[in-house]
Structure formats: structure tokens, C-alpha cells
Amino acid sequence: MRCRLLADRFRRPSAALTLGVGLLVSALPGAAPLTAQSVATPTSRVRALSNADFASTISSISEAGGYFDTDNLISNERSYLHVMEQLDRLQVRGGAFIGVGPDQSYSYIARTRSEIAFLLDIRRDNLLQHLLFKALFAESRTRAEYLAQWLGRPSVLLLQRDAARSIEELLQQLELTPATAESRGAAQRAVSAQIARMGLSLSPTDMATISRFHETFMSQGLALRFTSIGRAPRPYYPTLRDLLLETDRSGRQANYLASEADFQYVKELHHRNLIIPVVGDLAGAKALTGAGRFVRDRGLPVSVLYASNAEDYVMRDGGFARYVQNVASLPRTSNSVMIRSWFGGPGTHPHEVPGYFSVQLLQTMDAFVQASKADVLWGYRALVFTPHVAP
What we know:
Layout: H1 4-10, E1 15-16, E2 24-25, H2 51-61, H3 84-89, E3 96-99, H4 104-112, E4 116-121, H5 124-139, H6 143-151, H7 167-175, H8 181-196, H9 204-220, H10 240-245, H11 260-271, E5 275-279, H12 287-296, E6 302-308, H13 310-316, H14 320-328, E7 337-342, E8 359-364, H15 365-373, H16 380-384
Parallel strand pairs: 3-4, 3-6, 4-5, 6-7
Antiparallel strand pairs: 1-2, 7-8
Helix pairs in contact: 4-11, 5-6, 5-8, 5-9, 6-8
């Protein structure tokens, strides 16, 4: 994989940090002291996209949709926040985010203050779900409003707009305000109106799918749990409530809805059409490389690539060599990172947190490309035991 010239274009002088594998990491240009609350709004290095440009970007880099045996309305990774301190320590900041899956990516985007994001998934349904989220952000001024619209709760909740409220207080308020037929209908009409303003070409089937997703969130509420088609529910799958209340390794709540500042950051990116959902395979010919070209043309690196455990399926489908080429082609810095998850169960990985079935792992892109060159990755288990950044 010939990636050295491309990587060098984005490199900056770096400071050596001891990470157990001797990796070099550096701050992105102009990074401020890293806290979850800093940088209230996105930087201006990436201009806002018009609705027409937003739609054409989706169309130009999307691929044909594929099948996966899950609705993926919420994540099954309870451990998704366990890499937050590592992101802080490596000063992963700004640049572009590329990730798979539903809204867990928003927490990474908020924490690293990404300047643009591409949300890539093989299922077209994932694109439609992110349009639902985009509409909810547009309709909501605060986290309280967002949660109310998302779960179809009455407007009485919308009167509570205290930015200092904890996520626990907001969820308690939700549970004291049950959804009604009227509140659910109003929320769905508001979402439909917002989507109509986006200027996208959506079929009646697309709109019905978005409505079905919203109805599922409203009917199941905070008890909604990840489900798969044809497979029994796993006892370790989290509920929506679990995911919203999750913490990083230090015990700090770090979901994007745990902080008003983080919510507002993601909301502003959506407002500027800089969170772009794309249909595609990580090993495909257009989506991942197209996102890379888009950000390269704007002088940005890809700072975070979040793959969940999708690499496992890429390997099983025989597309791993192409995927490695795609990753190697991305513009990056020496502290650009990849986030992946491992579902081996307790006692199967040194980075696991007791009480969690899944493990979140963070690796620099440079380390991944080097490990792939060594031709030692004969399966996903081998990949998750290549050098990763220590917790």
C-alpha cells in the first residue's frame, strides 16, 4: 500500500508518547486544550453545504445498498465510550470523521470536535435513519426538545430547557411524561416537514421507513433494545437508556446528549449539512474513498475512522485487501485513529472493562496499515490483537 506520500502531506511535527507500542502521536494544527465542553461551534475550515450540494454529495459517493440482519436502530456496543480518554490523550481533534452505524458516532464527533462527518453503512436504512436524526436536530432547540421529539413525548417537556440539567434528570422527566397519540402524531408531522425542506429525492417507501423507525422509538422509548433478524436477543445488548447513561472509563458520562454543548455542536454541524450519510461498503469502490477525496480536496485529514466490528464482516466477505487499500488512501496525520469493537466476551481481551461484554479498541491508522502490510491478519481475532493504544 503506497501511502507514505499521502500521509506526509498531512504530517506535522509530533511528540513521542509512550503507548506500549512506541507509536508517535501529535496534535492537529491549532488544537485548543482538549475538553468536552470547548469549541461551542464548528470551525470555518469547511464551508456549509447547500441542500443541493448535500444531496449531490450523497448521490455521488454512495454505492448500491446491501443487506445486514439487524435494524441497527441503536448500538449493541455498551463499551462505545471507553476510548474517549485515549482520544483526549492523543489530542485527536478536528478534521473529518467517518463512521458506521446509528447515533453513537455523534458522541465521537462531539468529543473530537470533528469539522465534517460521513456516516457510512451498507444499508440504505442507515441513511434514512440519519435523515430522521437530522430532522430531529433541526426541529429541536435543546436536548430536552430533542428527546421529546425523538420519543414522541408531549410538549409539556418542551418547556423544560435548562441547559444545566443532567442527562439523568432529562430521562426522569421523559419517563414522567408518557407519549400520547397526539404527541406522537405531532412529532412525526414535524419530522416529515423538516425532511421535505432538505430537498432530497425520497420515495414513498423511504418516507414510510423513516416513519416506521420513528414510530419504533416512540413506542418502545428508553427500553428499546438492539435486535437482529433470525437471532435471539443477547442478554448483554444495551437498551437506549443504557446507552444514553453510559460513561467513559473514568466514570464520566460522555454521550452527546449528556452535555448541552456537545448537543449544540452536533446540531450546528447538521445545520450546515456537514454530517453526510452515505450508502456504501467499507471495501467498496466509491464510498470510503469518495469521502476521503472530499476531505482531501478541502485540506483536511480523516482524524477518526469508526468501523465498529464491520471489519469482521468485510473479512468474511473476502473484501479485506480492498478495505486496507481504501484506508491507506485516506488523508491522515500520525494521530489519525480507528475505533473498532470486539465481542469476544469476558476474559478475551486485555483492554476489556469488567462487567462489559464488548470491548472498544483504538488504533492509529498508521499502525493498522503497517500491520496489514505484514500479512499477519488472517481473521478479525488477529486484527484486534495487533498493537492498539493502551487505555
